[in-house]
Write a structure and sequence with these properties.
3-stranded mixed sheet; elongated; 4 helices; 3 strands
Length: 99
């Protein structure tokens, strides 16, 4: 059984999740989900043709309506990645995989 150290001041759950090493994987998953969730907000003009599916190892998986749009978005990949990262103010995406 581990030993508990009493703290003078109680920490909030948010502080614990933000600071404890044990929650690093959890924090990364939340950041990945945040990119998927915010994709439509960052790119409202793409809502009808592309849907963010998931993020794995800083690769955003985008489901695209058809091959014509897939080609167009592939040409704009760098600007899409830059816009996502700048809106979040952190490099969370390095590349996009179109599916």
């Amino acid at each position: 059984m581990g030993m508990f150290i009493m703290r003078k001041q109680a920490l909030s759950i948010g502080d614990i999740i933000e600071k404890e090493e044990n929650f690093e994987t959890f924090r990364n998953k939340v950041k990945e989900f945040d990119v998927v969730f915010q994709f439509g907000l960052v790119f409202p003009e793409l809502k009808q043709i592309a849907q963010a599916v998931k993020v794995v190892k800083k690769i955003l998986y985008l489901k695209v309506e058809n091959s014509v749009w897939r080609s167009e978005l592939r040409l704009r990949q760098k600007s899409i990645v830059d816009r996502i990262n700048s809106s979040i103010k952190e490099e969370r995406i390095k590349s996009i995989k179109f599916i």
